[in-house]
Amino acid sequence: MSTEWYLVLSALLFSTGAVGVLIRRSPLVILLCLELMLNSSNLALLAFSRAHGNADGQVFALVVMVVAACEVVVGLGLIVAMYRRNLPLDVDEARVLRK
Amino acid sequence: MQEVAFFFGAFGALAGAIAVIRLRNPFYSVLALVIHLISLAGLFLLLQAEFVAAAQIVVYAGAVMVLYVFVAAYVGGVDEPFWEPIPGQRIIAPLLGGALFVELAIAILGTGLKDFASEGPSVELGFGSPAAIGELMLEKFLIAFEAASMLLLIAAVGAIVLAGRREGSD
């Protein structure tokens, strides 16, 4: 398979994730859509890494995974904190930083 | 053979992604993301990124998704209301997403990336194996590796500070 196929698939997955962030209002699902976008960029990184025959891109993909894991941990912590304080789990409602 | 595997993986990844944004229950969205991640790991294997594919399965489809499932079960199925605060959001957002895809496709297919129309150079055996990645991480990218481990530690402490506080203690 040529590299272009992987790149077009990665663009398609990235736009799907972007649409998800725009249309969904639950913060949990928005985090899932962020995962979609990060993973599509990982796919592009690995496709370029294969196209150049250079494994540096794979290390970049692993670092992207680490950053995604950090983002998930902090995001889920925020969601649990919002739930415990009985704040609405809706990003249109929760648009101010104070209570 | 490789084409068949690619199209199966691509179909699974795309179907999982669309299911994530279409299913109303967050719990089902998490399960759809697991399908997406496993299909993507198959594609990573096709790109000869064996260690990244294994990390994808273990770290993402294993650990991170379990975390998501726990939080989705803790918070409960929150039904999103049908009324929309921003009129036309549900129509305009997919249009913008389609425009984004068209732009990216033009950027990929239309410009100087013509050299990537091939499969890439043939790589030696062991490309993307744990040994090769480990050597790169501990020699060439040692600083990035240490910074990533520091970042993970900070995120773990931050999550405990954010979510671990009891009611009435602040």
Question: What does the model show?
Answer:
The complex is a heterodimer of chains A (99) and B (170). Chain A has a single domain (3-84), classed as Helix Hairpins. In chain A, helix 1 packs antiparallel against helix 2 (27-52) and helix 2 (27-52) packs antiparallel against helix 3. With 99 residues, chain A is mainly α. Helices cover 77% and strands 0% of the residues of chain A. Chain B has 170 residues and is mostly helical. Chain B folds into two domains: 1-79, Four Helix Bundle (Hemerythrin (Met), subunit A), CATH 1.20.120; 125-170. Classes of the chains: A mainly alpha (99), B mainly alpha (170). At the A-B interface, helix 1, helix 2 and helix 3 of A face helix 1, helix 2, helix 3, helix 4 and helix 5 of B.
Contiguous uncertain segments of 5+ residues of chain A? none
Looking at the overall shape, the CATH architecture of chain A is Orthogonal Bundle
Query: Could you spell the SSE succession of chain B in H and E letters?
Result: HHHHHH
Largest sheet of chain B: none
CATH topology of the largest domain in chain B: Four Helix Bundle (Hemerythrin (Met), subunit A)
Please provide the count of β strands of chain B: 0
Summarize model confidence as the mean pLDDT of chain B: 85
* Total helical elements of chain B: 6
Structural class of chain B: mainly alpha
Determine the fraction of residues in helical runs of chain B and give it as a percent range.
over 70%
Find the structural class of chain A using helix and strand composition: mainly alpha
